[in-house]
Amino acid sequence: MGIRITGTGLFHPEHVISNEELVTSLNAYVDQYNHDHADQIEAGEKTALRGSSAEFIEKASGVKCRYVIEKTGILDPKRLRPYLTERSDDELSIQAEWGVTAAKQAMQNAGVTAEDIDVVILACSNLQRPYPAVAVEIQTALGIQGYAYDMNVACSAATFGLKQAYDAIQSGARRVLLVNVEITSGHTDYRSRDCHFIFGDVATASVIENTETKTGFEILDTNLFTQFSNNIRNNFGFLNSSEDAVKDDKQFRQDGRKVFKEVCPLVAKMITAQLEKNQILPSQVKRFWLHQANATMNELILKLVVGKPAAEAHPELVPIILDEFANTSSAGVIIALHRSADQVNDGEYGVLCSFGAGYSVGSILVQKRVA
């Protein structure tokens, strides 16, 4: 028997925003801002904002477009955030609705029903509300018994969630449904040249179970690490309502250069150590499913793990989906797995590794098992 990922699911909204559309919106905002504050800018009291270009975005990140929950509000220079209608407490929340959709696909792919699942975990960076747990809402909507809970380890939530699923099964649960729903457009600062292009909205789900009769990816080893850093931060929270001054730090912000410099070697070191621990050579790994934050980061991590010649000769070792989806936080590694699972053959190894705010890094070593 082995604890395996036996099914995955993916849902994304219909709305797509290209880099060109996003840049047009930002530049219109920048022009208006600089016009409205021309006197303060000239006096040195304010700094003029800079516009951007589609070419800059793709070169800096590898992102070409992204799916979003609603685009007209995001692209309105006077609004720069999605138009959403608040739902009543008796209606299924947006996050639960997306999670249910992705979960049904994962359950179908795994060949399981609600009666077969004991645990539901919603692991993501961006929870729609603090309580009641959205995971319990998803559990109830699907008709699953047992228990459910929400967890947040930023962009590493999926790999940390896989570890929790693994532990739950070792403790007696039959199957775990892991859901990652990221509606990131709600926290993205579309006024920021450095951040407005990074994120997209999506939902993924995975079924994890103990089986020897189903095709899937057997979890061989898990490795988790956290270290506090302010280089990626979002200060939005319930205590804000008690603060006298409203600060402009309640959306995603990061020092991208520091993150790149500090996180890439850390991730590569963790993956390398994990492979050495399990006596597996980097050349034996068929796919590295890395967090989909930045194409250049993933290229560097691959070079550090497998060596520059091998990385340049075999870029397919790291599947890239962020060109279509952008950074979908915790869901990125699952999308990459979902899209390229059929590229791994029976007995071949793979690594799911996510990393983000915290810092947090989660690495899961798996082996394809064909029934």
Strand order in the sheet with the most strands: 5-4-6-7-1-8-13-12-11
Structural class: alpha+beta
Total count of strands: 13
Question: Main β-sheet, in a few words?
Answer: 9 strands, mixed
The number of helices is: 11
Strand content range: 15-25%
What is the averaged pLDDT score? 95
Q: How many angstroms separate the termini? A: 12 Å
Low-confidence stretches: none
Describe the structure.
The mean pLDDT is 95. The longest helix is centred in the last third of the chain and has 22 residues, at 256-277. Strand 4 (119-123), helix 5 (134-142) and strand 5 form a beta-alpha-beta unit. This protein has a nine-stranded mixed β-sheet, sandwiched between helices. A two-stranded antiparallel sheet has the order 2-3. With 371 residues, the protein is an alpha+beta fold. The chain has eleven helices and 13 strands.
Secondary structure elements and pairings:
Layout (H helix, E strand, L loop, with lengths): L1 E10 L3 E4 H18 L1 H5 L11 H8 L3 E4 L25 H17 L8 E5 L10 H9 L4 E5 L5 H14 L4 E9 L17 E11 L4 E11 L5 E2 L19 E2 L1 H22 L7 E6 L4 H12 L1 H6 L8 H4 L6 H9 L8 E8 L3 E10 L2
Parallel strand pairs: 4-5, 4-6, 11-12
Antiparallel strand pairs: 1-7, 1-8, 2-3, 6-7, 8-13, 9-10, 12-13
Helix pairs in contact: 1-3, 4-5, 7-8
